[in-house]
Amino acid sequence: xxxxxxxxxxxxxxxxxxxxxxxxxxxxxxxxxxxxxxxxxxxxxxxxxxxxxxxxxxxxxxxxxxxxxxxxxxxxxxxxxxxxxxxxxxxxxxxxxxxxxxxxxxxxxxxxxxxxxxxxxxxxxxxxxxxxxxxxxxxxxxxxxxxxxxxxxxxxxxxxxxxxxxxxxxxxxxxxxxxxxxxxxxxxxxxxxxxxxxxxxxxxxxxxxxxxxxxxxxxxxxxxxxxxxxxxxxxxxxxxxxxxxxxxxxxxxxxxxxxxxxxxxxxxxxxxxxxxxxxxxxxxxxxxxxxxxxxxxxxxxxxxxxxxxxxxxxxxxxxxxxxxxxxxxxxxxxxxxxxxxxxxxxxxxxxxxxxxxxxxxxxxxxxxxxxxxxxxxxxxxxxxxxxxxxxxxxxxxxxxxxxxxxxxxxxxxxxxxxxxxxxxxxxxxxxxxxxxxxxxxxxxxxxxxxxxxxxxxxxxxxxxxxxxxxxxxxxxxxxxxxxxxxxxxxxxxxxxxxxxxxxxxxxxxxxxxxxxxxxxxxxxxxxxxxxxxxxxxxxxxxxxxxxxxxxxxxxxxxxxxxxxxxxxxxxxxxxxxxxxxxxxxxxxxxxxxxxxxxxxxxxxxxxxxxxxxxxxxxxxxxxxxxxxxxxxxxxxxxxxxxxxxxxxxxxxxxxxxxxxxxxxxxxxxxxxxxxxxxxxxxxxxxxxxxxxxxxxxxxxxxxxxxxxxxxxxxxxxxxxxxxxxxxxxxxxxxxxxxxxxxxxxxxxxxxxxxxxxxxxxxxxxxxxxxxxxxxxxxxxxxxxxxxxxxxxxxxxxxxxxxxxxxxxxxxxxxxxxxxxxxxxxxxxxxxxxxxxxxxxxxxxxxxxxxxxxxxxxxxxxxxxxxxxxxxxxxxxxxxxxxxxxxxxxxxxxxxxxxxxxxxxxxxxxxxxxxxxxxxxxxxxxxxxxxxxxxxxxxxxxxxxxxxxxxxxxxxxxxxxxxxxxxxxxxxxxxxxxxxxxxxxxxxxxxxxxxxxxxxxxxxxxxxxxxxxxxxxxxxxxxxxxxxxxxxxxxxxxxxxxxxxxxxxxxxxxxxxx
Length: 1057
Fold this sequence. Notes:
By secondary structure, the chain is α+β, with helices and mostly antiparallel strands. Helices cover 49% and strands 13% of the residues. The chain is built from 38 helices and 20 strands. The strands form 6 sheets. The chain has a 4-stranded antiparallel beta sheet with strand order 8-5-12-11, with no helix packed on it. The chain has a 4-stranded antiparallel beta sheet with strand order 7-6-9-10. Strands 17-14-13-20 form a 4-stranded antiparallel beta sheet, with no helix packed on it. The radius of gyration is 45 Å and the shape is flat. Residues 1-86, 131-143, 189-193, 503-517, 558-563 and 748-764 have low confidence and may be disordered. It comes from Apteryx owenii. Keywords: Cytoplasm, Endosome, Exocytosis.
């Protein structure tokens, strides 16, 4: 006889309790059988096996014996519109009881935690099954064993862990596993159990290890492990985090040394064994304290109190099953089983609400939510597949049971957000596509009978119709719908066709039979006709106010009209002809433009006119098109916008065609007559014509009343679309016309491109000839061009000249006076371009550049420090900290006294989170103070707010302090023993503002000198224009030395690096 262990006794008692709970859950007459004179659940033997296995007991089987399995009963049932195969409800019943029986994890706050309540709920659902189907819920002959319990653990990341390496970082990895109670008993006597590690508690083959993340304090793993366990009550999850140590040479460690803490780590590593990993912390969690799905940060616990704060680790847990022994789990995919279970529970919830005469709003009871949540987590179903199952169940049930269609919107939104087609198998894609098509067909059938399905006499009918239309519209917009449904379906067209199909007439139009009786008296027939008209008008008004609004706003099936019925939609008669009319108008206008250019001799057609005859014909064509648009007055806003787009596009095409034709015409006439003067005159006419055409194009928005069109189309077309379609097209045409004008000018002998050579050296030598050329030719241009074109030509020429001269000035240092003369030439004493037009950003930049190029190196250095002083005065932010000083000048002694008081809010530049600051004082520029040496304060160790309180004296004459750029430069460094010092920041104090410099001797009082707080700044990483100019002067040693010093200072800035 086998002796039962204490653990076996507890397991047997727990098995008896499970049997009682399961027995109470079964509905009367279902799922029970008589064993040994008493009632026992069909899983009693399976539960007993499981508990005996946990207790270490094994039943004795006799040789030759074999258990007899009677055949299962099958029944063909159909419930709530879902045809079930034989025995499917029995398998589903088995699946849900199995899910409750082997529940894992702490209940969520909104879930049912009591198993008895869940069994009672299952009993109610099974009792609600029709009698024919309930007959199939017979005692289950199979004995499903318990599944393999699994913990799906994901190690996401960690933060704030200890740095164990010389570099101040670690190479962390994790060891994790599950400790059972049997293993735990071996360590109960160990008083320091918290110091134990995973490899000491768990067998080696059950330990999992993550990858090693090198040199970090915030590692990211995102690795998932499946850990099996037997009993959730006694199992615990263990995770240890270690720093991987690899044997390295002392030279390599010294190369990574950054501070004294790193040196301590080297000595510590020398005392321990080679290759021994350092402990970073651990996490121990009891599985019974976890939820089915758990996602949170956990503190890393120490083994000693030396470093109690060891950071946090982000873990995700999911308690799942593996190798479930139910018939459904063995024969069907998890997704399919979950969908069938969802269908059964949702149909029960819907029928419960209908029995209570309340409309179901899509919210499940907490019992159903709990069962579905447990089943999905135990099956390890993804969120996407759960939403898919919900959509298939709800969309199918909507076609058989009445509930609010807005319940489908949540599934549509979720599928659209998570849609990835590759995650579905082919049969799942076909199933989803069929659900889309089925719901669309069913919805269209409801719309076809909307007067009966959604009568106005029933409350909330309009809301139900509006919700249905919204669901169909959103479904047709889904990416899943477009990818899986290969046929192109136009929902507005389908709705329109459904509404056009003759159906059942609403109650107001059910014309009584007496209206169809033989003609009687004229009075009676008149009354019957009047009654019919009243009913028809009332129904039309009702449709216009209610139904029409829904179909327009939701499905876009119709266009709303506020005009009288007799004249509504009259423009539809001409809709098909409008595109032909527009094309015909474009063709005629284009032919007329071509004939006008062919007949044009490109001569002024009036004494005071500088345009040719073709512009008159083109203006007439445009005026006729504008008049056609005004007379058309198309009532539909969206279609009117499309007509406007076509008109603008055609007019822009005509404009570009005219430019090409008139240029070709000018070339033909010039080649025929071979007269250089007449050719120049024709080119001037061409420029004037294109300019006139440009003015016509600019007037189109006001002539075509675009503002009114935007107001009309505001509800159907976005302003961005109008901007992109109309305004951008017009701007593009204007830009093309400006380009055409420049192309015409390039053909003339006064071309600006021909007057400016491309070579920089030749350009500098050609400035004076260019001015003489302009003086002789601009008079001719002024006579033959309209004033606006002449000013435009001057503007183009000026901008082109500046572009070429700016490019040349970057390669050679020119004379600024020549460019000043060129400016006066274009200004022409007020007769040319105005000064605000001449002084563009390019001109001012060129002028500044030329002034700098003509300055000596020492002046440039002074200018550099003047700019830094101004930047110092404009800086108010103390991003890099600040330094406080007191400065006083004594004229009688010609002595400058500087007291460095303190510095605050410095940036920590050492690995220990602090700095070793000191201040260097120099007088700049160096060429003004060649004999004054730099002074340095003492170094303050491990301080971000150092107190110096040191004074320094400099002997300098007062006139030196008045020089441009003269300043006191205070540079704060972080002292480094093994490398170059790091830059904390620098501050510039202008010597011209030193107290006492301009005061009398008697007024000086050192005690009342104000303190000056200077924010620290860093040199700009992008460099400075003055420094680039100094660097380009290769032969100037002083300039090169200054640039080298400033570059070195920039390299010392870690921000610049």
